[in-house]
Amino acid sequence: MAWIQASIEADSKIAEKLADALMEAGALSAAIEDAWAGTTQEEPIFGEPGEPVDRLWSQSRILALFAHDAEVALLIAAAANACQQPMPVFTTERIEEQDWVRLTQSQFEPIRISDRLWITPTWHEAPAPNAVNLQLDPGLAFGTGSHPTTRLCLQWIDAHLTPGATVLDYGCGSGILAIAALKLGAGATTGVDIDPQAVRASSDNAAQNGVSALFCLPDDTPPTQVDVLLANILANPLRMLGGMLANHVKTGGRIVLSGILAEQAEELSAIYSSWFDMDPPVFDEGWTRLTGTRRQTV
């Protein structure tokens, strides 16, 4: 079976409404992307929880999928009419049926973090059998090693984690940081996330990697202090959670923060300097890793 994919140019003010109208008119799917993606005019969009951000690009493109025998022009016209908009400019192409699972898997290769640490999808042979290989599949949960923020944290764990150190991974997502820490010699390790699905995924991923950690929701976090606290979340929650996170770190213990844009590094470092002696920030593709050492509490 084949499908027809329509590429429709749309202003950001109408793109979301038009995509919904296309679904109502009979499209099988409708996705919105940057019309300038892959060019020098590509427009990066970053958002923060709780902050009102226009999540669409100034010039958007809707990719709508239709059945092979659909009257695409008529359906697009009906959707535009429902939005009280003129007929948009669009192009179409035929999409042949494929083995989408195999095609998707072929796009994800093992990720090298360092000479001794790799992230390898379960369907792929380990490229460095003698290295520490984390088995994680893309798309199961946030944090499978491809994003700079995860990579920055993994590189710190690989270079600085002391064997036997206790670890708290706050905002664990897929559990990748906790799992990496355990496979690199950490002691008792806890992962915390606000999403029950992330807690379940982390537990499953840990079992798949042959390690064991406590994964739980925030209210179930043990009232203990650890040697290393990892928090790869976002700047807005990190602003609010500073005191709480600091209370979980032993005097002389280390904190590792990421999910922070480069332009937010100075502000976040200043906030955490209330409790930690902060190191210079480390940057990767516009993102930041901040680290610090817990000072003696008075």
From TrEMBL:
PANTHER family, sorted: ELECTRON TRANSFER FLAVOPROTEIN BETA SUBUNIT LYSINE METHYLTRANSFERASE
UniProt family annotation: Belongs to the methyltransferase superfamily. PrmA family.
Annotated positions binding S-adenosyl-L-methionine: 150, 171, 193, 232
Predominant cellular place of this UniProt entry's protein: cytoplasm
GO MF annotations, alphabetized: protein-lysine N-methyltransferase activity
SUPFAM superfamilies according to UniProt: S-adenosyl-L-methionine-dependent methyltransferases (SSF53335)
HAMAP family assigned: Methyltr_PrmA
Protein known as: Ribosomal protein L11 methyltransferase
UniProt keyword annotations, A-Z: Cytoplasm, Methyltransferase, Ribonucleoprotein, Ribosomal protein, S-adenosyl-L-methionine, Transferase
Catalyzed reactions: L-lysyl-[protein] + 3 S-adenosyl-L-methionine = N(6),N(6),N(6)-trimethyl-L-lysyl-[protein] + 3 S-adenosyl-L-homocysteine + 3 H(+)
InterPro entries given in the database record: Ribosomal_L11_MeTrfase_PrmA, Ribosomal_PrmA_MeTrfase, SAM-dependent_MTases_sf
Residue ranges the record marks as coiled coil: none
Function statement: Methylates ribosomal protein L11.
Gene Ontology annotations for the cellular component aspect, listed alphabetically: cytosol; ribosome
UniProt cross-references to Gene3D superfamilies, sorted A to Z: Vaccinia Virus protein VP39
Protein localization: Cytoplasm
Superkingdom, taxonomy of origin: Bacteria
EC number: 2.1.1.-
Gene Ontology biological-process annotations: methylation
